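Data availability (excerpt). The following record was deposited with the supplementary files.
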Amino acid sequence: MAYGLDLRQKVINYIENGGRVTKVAQVFGIGRASIYRWLERKELAATKVKY
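Predicted structure:
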């Protein structure tokens, strides 16, 4: 599933301000693995899909 940049930014801001990954995953209905991938990225930009 594709998530918008605004949602990704909200999730990252929540975690950077002391929120827990498990809690934000439940609140926004996002998998924890997706959140950890977003946190590892240097730049929060749209992902290009290769066909």
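Summary of structural features: The chain is about 55% helix and 0% strand.
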